[in-house]
Amino acid sequence: MSAGIGIDPTAQGKVRDIYDLGDTLLLVASDRLSAFDVVLPDPIPFKGEVLTKLSLYWFDLLADVVPNHLLSADVADLPDEFRAHADYLAGRSMLVRKASVFPVECIVRGYLAGSGWAEYRASGTVCGMSLPAGLRESSRLPQPMFTPSTKADIGSHDQNVSVHDMFDIVGAEIGSQLQEASIALYAAARDHAAPKGIIIADTKFEFGLIDGQVTLVDEVLTPDSSRFWPAGSYEPGHGQPSFDKQYVRDWLEASGWDKTSPAPSLPADVIAKTSEFYIQAYELITGRTFVPERG
48-57, pLDDT tens digit by residue? Predict the structure, then answer.
């Protein structure tokens, strides 16, 4: 996976390149896309900028709900060796405070979709928690559900865990704070997006400790970490169109791929359509026109 600039990252995730700058970190969102926990061979144009700009929007909007790690998104605030790569970094990089990140993904589900729907159909539960009978695919849940998972290495699958198991991992006091923060963030974002024509079906958050305080880190409420559905066409009883990477997931499912690395290359039309969906999500949620900072 290319870092995008001629400086080797300190660490590299499925999508982000991470540079340790001493007291801070530089997070750079690439155009890489992962599906079923495998990084795909084809980049999605403008994806890194959409992820970064949408995260910046939510960090500002939700700062009163939970503090976050953002310091600056201005390339001028970076060390000289990074400013030399401003053409690439502008719009896709964030300077953030270092945090002791918790080893769990904090997932909140507001609607019955994906693996939650598959489990409910089989057993009437989602992540082991019982739900009322008679719900349909894409039904709105009686209340948002907190369903954490472990964080997997690249090429491995995240594993759902019970809330009790999460408490064993991070401690009951911190676990309760993560649960409460996740639900509060989801509810605030859901209510903000609804009048803009977006249903946030589910999303995942990551948190860490900074100066002893639970802090929102990484990205937040992007098409990579969330299911965004158009409210105008919402209809329970089947899967919904979405402004995220579901279009790619659907193509991969139909391709017969066994969901192990390496993933197949995507057709040009799938790449273009996915880029379009990401940009639409940004524009609908923020009310702003997406203007790329690099062609």
Answer: 999 999 999 9
Per-residue pLDDT reduced to its tens digit, 234-276: 999 999 999 988 889 999 999 999 999 999 999 999 999 999 9
Model pTM score: 0.93
Distance CA 60, CA 42 (A): 31
Query: Is the Cβ–Cβ distance between 173 and 97 less than 8 Å?
Result: no
**214/234 Cα distance (integer angstroms):** 35
Mean pLDDT for the chain? Answer: 94
- With a CB cutoff of 8 Å and minimum separation 6, the contacts of 218 are 16, 27, 101, 206
Tell me the C-alpha to C-alpha distance, in Å, between residue 119 and each of 152, 195, 245, 259: 21, 30, 21, 19
Q: In sequence order, what DSSP letters do the residues of 7-60 get, joined into one string?
A: S--SEE-SSEEEEE-SSEEEEEE-S--EETTEE-SS--TTHHHHHHHHHHHHHH
List the one residue out of 278, 37, 269 whose CA is nearest residue 149. Answer: 37
CB atoms within 10 A of CB 168: 12
189 pLDDT more than 70 = yes
Which residues make Cβ contacts (< 8 Å) with residue 189, sequence separation at least 6? 58, 61, 62, 200, 203, 221
| The pLDDT value given to residue 294 | 67
What per-residue confidence (pLDDT) applies to 37?
83
* Contact criterion met (CB below 8 Å) for 227 and 242: yes
The domain segmentation of the chain, as residue ranges, is: 101-246
Phi, psi of 253 (to 5 degrees): -60, -45
Q: Which CATH architecture has domain 101-246?
A: 2-Layer Sandwich (3.30)
CB 291 within 8 A of CB 280: no
Which tokens is 211 given?
A: 């100066």
Among 91, 133, 139, 136, residue whose Cα is nearest residue 111: 139
